Amino acid sequence: MPKESGVSAVAVVAAFAVLAVAGTGFLAWQSTEQLGRAQTELDAAKSGLNKARADLRQATQDLAVAAGQSLAPAREADSLLAALGTPADRARFTAVADSARQVVQRCAQERRQRDTAHADSARFGVR
């Protein structure tokens, strides 16, 4: 009888070891799956960020053109404006450009105020 209890104890320990290895393998497999999902989400976020960056760059260029701060040389812009023809067209264009310029300046001023307030709150620990 003592021989049988020794064999059954070895069998229980071996079964326990097999279950422990299987459990560890399952946890490793789950972690790999989670890592794969996280990598996929990270790639999607990077793609979205790159698209947003491109959209922002395009919007900045469009706004600069609308505000009369085009990257085109001034003489080219003047020749385009002169080619429009009537003084009424030029007056409308000038009014729109002035309005857009004011909006851009106001937005820039508000941004500076927000940045200053954020820097102050970060410096003094206010949230």
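[next item in queue]
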Amino acid sequence: MGRLFQFCILLILFILPFSRPSLEEIYGINFVGNWTETEKRYVYQAISHVSIALQRQVNYPYPCKTNAELFKEVFGITKDNPLIIEKRYSTYTGAIVVNYYHIVFYNFFPSKDRSIRLIVHELGHVFEHNIFLNTEEKIPREVLKETWITDKTFPRRTFPNNYYGYYGLCYDWQMSCHKTPAEEFADMFIGWTYDKWETSPQGIIRKQWMDTNMPIFINASTPKLSQCSILYPLLINPIPY
């Protein structure tokens, strides 16, 4: 009986590593194109940073979902509807969302941190697209545009290479220099993810706007957050640093 028990334990330990899901499966993403392992780590780190911010907003101080569970639910990602992350060759540094759940990346920045923030910026666009698909409520760019109309003190980009309340300059903590509300929201999504803003009245205004509106946007993106997983104590939040 003792030997049988030992054999079963050894068999489980042998099989378990082969049955463990990949990070792609855990987070519901599908890499397309020629990605290096370093670039994939950038993507996983960006997703985990956004997931931690979602935990802070939704489940704090008693998280009851893994980072991956919460990320997929808020972004509308399922097994049949993965987030496609494509890499295409180009001399251009940047990325574009070509469909609701399809991001195309070109070259990344030499800096790891700036590259990760670029990915977070694009995830901000996907987050907004998921709101559009799931509700008739106003999406972030519409709310921001209305804010600019009703509150003339609210910061807005007028020319490149200034802070405007962001934590850094263009192509650092602002991944777009465009003045559109969609691009401004995606950059504010970076600030919200890391809770970092310029230490100025403009930075305070942007932070307060995001702190007020992100719970509303998350609720619109996921009208009914599912019940917590009963397996949560047995699960881990994979963060590949």
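[queue empty]
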